[in-house]
Amino acid sequence: QDKRTFPRYLVKDSSAVILTPGNIISYCILDISKSGLAFCYNGKSNKSEVLKNVIATFFTEHIGTSNISVQIVCDTELSKKNIRHQSEANISKKPSLRRCGIKFNQLSQEQENVISGYIQHLSI
Question: 51, 22 in Cβ contact below 8 A?
């Protein structure tokens, strides 16, 4: 279970993330904190694959992109229990959606600035 120590901020815009290798493309970002984020995607579990050197490319409406080294901390089937701001109807229409939680590895100052700027954008 993902237990981030920093406050989480719900994401309500059309931001997305791509994880490589594996080319996991997010359906939407669910929440973010200064230590990681959660998103949903359409696909199969990554538990069978050991993804090393995972890089997240972060796309937002108002902030530039940044390639961030991350670690996958959870990857579960999406359900009413693990999603807060999507409707039950959306979940039932997409039965293969999964929730993935990632933890940011050591961030550069520029990457911290991108994440902090995005969190500030969400707080407005």
Answer: yes
At 83 the pLDDT is 55
**The model's pTM:** 0.77
Pair 89, 28: CB distance under 8 Å: no
Taking the CB of residue 26, how many other CB atoms lie within 10 A of it?
21
Give just the sign of the alpha carbon dihedral 6, 8, 13, 16: positive
d(CA 56, CA 85) in angstroms, rounded, equals 23
C-alpha to C-alpha distance for 120 and 63, rounded to whole angstroms? 11
CB 67 within 8 A of CB 20: no
Euclidean distance between CA atoms 10 and 26, whole angstroms: 15
Q: What is the pLDDT of residues 33-49, one digit of tens each?
A: 999 999 988 887 665 55
Measured CA to CA in angstroms, residue 38 lies from 106, 116 at distances of 18, 16
